[in-house]
Amino acid sequence: MVLKSSTDIAKATVKLTDSSNDGLYLFTENVALSAGVEKTVTYRELTGIESSSVKMVFDFGGNPANTDIVISNILLRVSE
């Protein structure tokens, strides 16, 4: 996925969790975002979970007022 912020953000959190259990993560990552710069976040070969659905959580808490964030190019690929 690609994240882009209109202001600097020292710590944005991205998580992919089991939709029935917020404490069961496929990944959780803190990333720094620089104003106007696209940040690509990539995860490969993740350990699977026994669930038919997941949810992606973005936490931009503590960002400066009037910040615009663009989230794009999300790709989830399942392989067996």
Describe the structure.
This protein is 0% helix and 49% strand. The chain has 80 residues and is mainly β. It has strands at 2-5, 9-18, 21-33, 39-40, 54-59, 69-72. The chain has a three-stranded antiparallel β-sheet with strand order 4-1-6, with no helix packed on it. A three-stranded antiparallel β-sheet has the order 3-2-5, with no helix packed on it. The relative contact order is 0.39. It has one domain (2-72). A hairpin with a 2-residue loop joins strand 2 (9-18) and strand 3 (21-33). The chain is built from no helices and six strands.
Number of helices: 0
**SS-based class:** mainly beta
- Roughly how many Å apart are the termini? 22 Å
Number-wise, the strands total 6
Biggest sheet: strands, sense, closure?
3 strands, antiparallel
Order of helices and strands: EEEEEE
Task: Sum up the overall morphology in one term.
Answer: elongated
Beta-strand percent range: over 45%
- Alpha carbon gyration radius: 14 Å
Contiguous low-pLDDT stretches (5 residues minimum) are: none
Q: What is the average per-residue confidence, as pLDDT, rounded to a whole number?
A: 86
Q: What is the count of structural domains?
A: 1
Features:
elongated, mainly beta, 0% helix, 3-stranded antiparallel beta sheet, 80 residues
